[in-house]
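note to self — DONT lose this again. spent like an hour looking for the file last time. sequence + predicted structure for the chain T wanted, 227 res
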Amino acid sequence: MAAPGAGDKVYGARLEKGVSEVEVRYGRLTGDAADGEDAAVVELSHAFSNRFSAGILLETEREPHLSREVESYAIETIYTLGHIAALDTDVALYGEYEAKRHGAPDAIETKLLLQHSRGPFDSRLNFVVEKALQQGAPLEFGYAVSADWAAFGEFRLGAEAFGHLGSTDKFLPREEHFAGPMLRTEIEHLPGKGELEIETGYLFALGKSRDETNGQFRLVLEYEFRF
C-alpha cells in the first residue's frame, strides 16, 4: 500500500456542470529505507451536473530498484450534499470501487468532503473510510486536509497533510502521517476553455512513517476543460 499522500489529493466539495478533468498525481518518498518508492495516479472525471460527477482512476506504484507496476483500477463518484450555513461549509460525499491486482482483495472507499472558503482563504477536509472486500476485514480510517491562501497573482501558498487513523480493530494507534508546505498555481485560457493547475510540495514524515522515510515529494497536474 502506498504511503499516505503518495498519489492522493484533498478533494473539494464543489462541482461545476460540464467540466471535465484529466489529472496526474505523483508522490515519491525520500531518504532512509524507502527512498525512491513512489506512486502515481491518473484520473479522468466529468461533472454531469452541479451535484454529480463520475470518473475512472489508474494507480501505479514502484518499489526502489524495481519496475513500475499497475496496482489497481477504480471508478469514483462525487455527490454534493449542500451547504451548512452556520459553518459556511460545503459538503459532498465521495464513493469509489477499487479493483486491485496481484491477488489483493478489491476495496470500497467513501469520503466525507468538507470545503470552506472566505476571501483568499480555502480549506478542505476529507474523512476517509475504506474496507477490503474480504470476510472479517475491518474498516480502515484516514484523513486528508489542506489550507491555502491567495498569495500573489495566480499563486497560492499553503499546507496539507495525509494520514491513517487506524481501524475498527484498533483506532488511533501509532500510524503513518505526512504533512508539509505546498505551492499551487494555474495557467488559464488554454484550449477547450481550459485551465492547467500545478501543485507541488514536500511532506515531512511523522509518526510511524519516520521508521522508513524522511518525507515525500509531491506533484499534481490537473487540466480542466469544457466540451
